[in-house]
From TrEMBL:
This is Replication factor A C-terminal domain-containing protein. It comes from Buddleja alternifolia. InterPro entries: NA-bd_OB-fold, Rep_factor-A_C. Gene3D superfamilies: Nucleic acid-binding proteins. It comes from the Eukaryota.
Length: 239
């Protein structure tokens, strides 16, 4: 049982996890369900020295942990939180109107509609939230509190269309670099030299090509009220 693993594993890093006698209950954290006793107190991000050493350990093992997260190994024993089945293709119209599901696979063509947008931002190398620091500055992230560095991260909006309708979604990181065939450092250099990304050439090259795109839908608060935000977390050209 997962809770037994937590009971054995977390104390090695000094993370306090308390279990008392009571009926079993399910706690869902970050989309992962933990079975624990009803009266269990699981303390997240506690401000103890031991938890700082866990954060340090996480920073040191960042590359390996990122790989585990990207490969979603933690989903291998769970069917409840798995992604949409590969064969289930949604229409873009369904993605826009469906208020019960949050992950979809669509078969689409794509283009970059706004060539004036910024194609990169400076990010915490641990949690990818944006930071005001300069490139490669050492930072203590305001969001995840990791001691890490500021790195460039590619991010841009693209338009996906499947014939029913179209939607604007955000593409990040390696997927975005692959789409543009440009690393983030080149994007920053282009900006410094006042050069633009040649979106017309990219759109022409990819014109008519179809992709399987995995989209995550999330409600976010904006100054205009709640709006749906769409992020592409998987993008594969259909050969
Ligand atoms: Zn961070």
């Amino acid at each position: 049982m997962l809770v037994e693993c937590l009971r054995n594993w977390l104390p090695k890093f000094g993370v306090p996890v308390y279990f008392k006698n009571a009926l079993l209950t399910t706690i869902i954290i970050l989309g992962i369900s933990l079975v624990a006793r009803g009266s269990a107190n699981i303390v997240l991000n506690p401000s103890y020295p031991e938890s700082q050493s866990l954060r340090n350990w996480r920073s040191k093992n960042h590359a390996y942990l990122t790989k585990i997260v990207e490969e979603k190994k933690y989903l291998q024993h769970s069917t409840r939180h798995s992604m949409a089945p590969q064969e289930k293709i949604s229409s873009v119209a369904n993605v826009l109107t469906n208020e019960t599901e949050t992950k979809f696979r669509v078969k689409v063509t794509s283009k970059i509609s706004d060539p004036q947008q910024k194609f990169w931002y400076m990010a915490c190398d641990n949690c990818y939230k944006s930071t005001a620091a300069q490139y490669l500055w050492n930072i203590t992230c305001n969001v995840c509190h990791a001691e890490t560095v500021a790195k460039l991260r590619t991010k841009f909006a693209m338009t996906l269309s499947d014939g029913t309708t179209e939607l604007e979604a955000i593409l990040f990181g390696g997927l975005a670099e692959k789409y543009l065939s440009l690393p983030a450092n080149d994007l920053m250099e282009k900006d410094e030299q006042n050069e633009k990304v040649d979106c017309a050439a990219i759109n022409t090259q990819l014109y008519g090509k179809e992709f399987n795109a995995d989209i995550r839908k999330k409600k976010v608060q904006t100054r205009y009220g709640p709006e749906n935000q769409y992020t592409v977390f998987g993008l594969e050209e259909i050969q």
